[in-house]
Amino acid sequence: MSAAAVRPVDTRPLIVRARRWARANLFSTRANTVLTLVTLLIVGWAVFALLRFVLVSADWTVIEVNRRLLAIGRFPRDEEWRLWPPLWALMIVGAFAFGLWLQVDRRGGVLIAAVLLFLYGYLFEGENALLLAGGMALAVGAYVAARRVRGTPYQSRARVAAVVGLVLVLPLAVVMLQVGDGVRTSAWGGFFLNLMLAALGIGLGFPLGVVLAVGRASSLPVVRWIATAYIEFVRAAPLVAWLFMARFVMPDFLPPVGGLDDTDIISRAILVLAGFTAAYVAEIVRSGLQSVARGQHEAAEALGFNAFQSTSLIVLPQALRAVIPALVGQFISLWKDTTLVFALGLTEFLGAGEATLAQRSFIGREQEVFAFVAFGFWAVAFGMSRLSQRIERGVGVGIR
Amino acid sequence: MSTQPVAPRRRRFLRSQRNRRLAIQAALAAAALLFLLYMVSRALTVDLGLGFLRAPAGFALSNEWMTNHRSTESRLDAYLIGVWNTIRLVVLAIICATVLGVIAGVARLSNNWLVNRLGLVYVETIRNTPVLVQIIFWWLAVFLTMPPIATGRAMFETVWFSNRGIAVPWAAQRGDLAVVWVALLLASVVAAVWVRRRRVRLEDATGQIAHPNRWGALTFLGLAAVTFLATGMPYGIEVPEVLISGANIQRYQGGLTLTPQFAAVFVALTTYTGAFIAEIVRGSIQALPRGQGEAAEALGFTGYQRMTLIILPQALRIMIPALTNQYLNLTKNSSLAIVVGYSELFFVSSIIVNNAGHAVPMFALVIVTYQAMSLLISVGMNALNDRVRLATR
User: Fold this and answer.
1) Does residue B6 register a pLDDT over 80?
2) What digits encode the pLDDT tens for the residues A126-175?
3) What angle (nearest 5°) sits at the alpha carbon of residue A201, between those of residues A198 and A204?
4) Residue B66: left (phi > 0), alpha (psi -120 to 50), or beta?
5) Is B336–A226 a contact, with Cβ atoms under 8 angstroms apart?
6) Calpha distance A174→A151 (Å, rounded)
7) How far apart are the first and last CA of chain B?
8) Is 0.90 surpassed by the pTM of this model?
């Protein structure tokens, strides 16, 4: 409060302030002036070209007509109801958690409103729009409730509940997709497939990665060797090569137990993504383990903790806290990598985009389609990185 | 819960920490061994030999620079062309991405607001979009939407743009003494290095500025020019033309043609990796003590000198490990060229697997090749790292 209040308020007219700012930041020296003018030329041209494309020359009907294909691929219409409970749960728990730890500032509020209006007005129609609006109303309610809980004695319990809830969204989604007759994974597609691949890749890969990291740092040589061999082996080849292996080679090597040997291609892709992420998560967590002072382990031992207790209760929490930024980076990387299943011929977001170009009325609409696809991926990745920065600042993680 | 009297013999055995450690390891080793045995038993059911590589390929590859593959040549030849194409792509992209990344990273630290923001927008847009989407975008939405070759656009009648690629002027051999000149060129590099070293020594001995870099460059250029003339100008610049013979045969003649496949993958990988390198450069420069820049300023260095002589050499030390990582990522990402059909090694391998099977040995070969390239990069960067460390400490 006080620091902000002390700053002197500049009361000179706006034009004076603007000129001073421009002189300090754009035209301070002659070289700087030249640089500014050249950059201005480039930026001006780029902004003009972009605006002309988005607002004038582009024909966005290809996206509007194919919004369902882009969002969920060829998911059966009768089974769409399965997608709503996990989406609602994600919105409500997400808003609740957001309200418990962070708060919406003016810029964030405007951004969220803009994104939701876009989704609401453009991608959903009919009863889907109503379902989305209902979920959004509940999410706002959850956010307000969370703000109320904040600062009360219930806060810490609410935070535990929020974390548990967030962790449970993924199993809920899987259960909803499987319950009853279920929807075969081959019917998953579009943006939804990318989300599922990323979520399952993180959900399965992260725990395995932590185990591998602890294994690599273990004092037992055999454990260390096995973990190291796995990590180095997986990191030796590009992900797309592993995905091709999953397609061509894996069926020959899976045991014929429980129908594993004819596991469908998407399940195999999930296994590969999880196993791949685990190797990279393991290296990140290992660096976190190395950053925890030896004294922590020794102190735990002195207090009578056994090896498992001291690792899981004392060392790991500190190690994970130290590497949260790097882990988020890895998860963003996984999110971007989910598009690689396109190379296996799956209709994920990029594949769905390409499929729209085969429609006769939309031939030659590459720029619109791929700009939209790029924007979709970008929005999630950028949102994740910004959110993690907010969390880091809000909770003070990443700093030891 | 009743208190236990004396622990049975078995429990006592497990209580000993040494025994327990041994037991855990033995169990895990046994499990790993079983797993390996299972994999081997499975692997034995498939043919692991590489003999199929000797058979004729049966497919032709799009001909990139310096390659000419016919379907009668062996699969091994096709694979080696793939390796060459990967190396060419990766080396060129690494160089360009580093230059782009350093420029963008320095721009991010500029006190010019506009330059600073431009760097930020570049980094945040490119870094948060999948490189595969970018490759496809450049391929389908940029390079293939160029006009057909017959109506292709040209810049000054020398650089041609069309959906067949970009044709640029390139060196073409004219005389017979080309080999001699190239050999002499190498000799003049050696001479230039020698001259430069002498000037450095002179500088160290007398304390006078001796301009070692200028002397070295002039030596090289002078020798190159003299030998070029002496060997009867063995190379000339060849300007590409569009060759139209008949209705269907339209292609570029002469010059160097960048195929749309290569151009798409190259541009995407360069800009993508450049964004990550920019962040590394920025972080490394920010990690330096502020006093370094201020001291250089106090000593009267210009902004450019401050950056190239004081800041970047020191930042280089910090950034090399992270840079190595990015180069390795770029190498692995080059395999994504498969989606546009650029004939790099992974694309060629997948065609071979599609045609002839033998997926296991083929993919094993692919992994070994990538690992070898990664090792080469790591070894080279580690050597650079050692040099930088020695030179400055």
Assistant:
1) no
2) 788 888 888 888 998 999 899 888 888 888 888 889 989 988 999 999 88
3) 145
4) left
5) no
6) 35
7) 66
8) no
Residues of chain A neighbouring B130 (CB-CB closer than 8 A) = 336-337, 339, 350, 377
How far is it, in rounded angstroms, from Cα B254 to Cα A152? 77
Q: Which two tokens stand for residue A62?
A: 């290809």
Q: Which residues of A touch B370 (CB under 8 A)?
A: 236-238, 241
Q: What is the mean pLDDT of residues B57-67?
A: 72
d(Cα B380, Cα B374) in Å, to the nearest integer?
Answer: 10
Burial (CB count <10 Å: 0-12, 13-18, 19+), residue A147 = middle
Q: Is the ipTM of this complex over 0.90?
A: no
Closest CA to A149 of A197, A96, A75: A96
Query: A127 — contact with chain B (CB < 8 Å)?
Result: no
Contacts of A260 (CB under 8 A, 6+ apart): A254
User: Do the Cβ atoms of A368 and A70 come closer than 8 Å?
Assistant: no
B283 token code pair: 């972080």
From A48's Cα to the closest Cα of chain B, the distance in A is 15
Contact (CB<8Å) A237/B367: yes
Q: Are B210 and B203 in contact (CB under 8 A)?
A: yes
- Residues of chain A contacting B133 with CB distance shorter than 8 Å: 339, 350, 370, 373-374, 377
A345 touches chain B (CB under 8 A): no
Q: Does residue A241 contact residue A233 with C-beta atoms inside 8 Å?
A: no
Element (H, E) at A82: none
CA angle B357, B361, B367 (to 5 degrees): 120
Spatial distance between the Cα atoms of B144 and B154, rounded to a whole number of angstroms: 16
- In DSSP terms, B160 is beta-bridged to B154, B167
User: Which residues face B243 on adjacent strands?
Assistant: B251
**What is the distance between the alpha carbons of residues B77 and B84, in angstroms, rounded to a whole number?**
10
Closest CA to A307 of A202, A390, A220, A205: A220
Torsions phi, psi for B130 (to 5 deg): -60, 140
Q: How many CB atoms lie within 10 A of CB B173?
A: 13
Name the residue type at position A290.
Q
Distance CA B65, CA B54 (A): 24
- Radius of gyration, CA atoms only, chain A: 25
Strands (E), chain A: none
Tally of residues, chain A: 400
pLDDT at position B287: 85
Answer with the residue of higher pLDDT: B4 or A168: A168
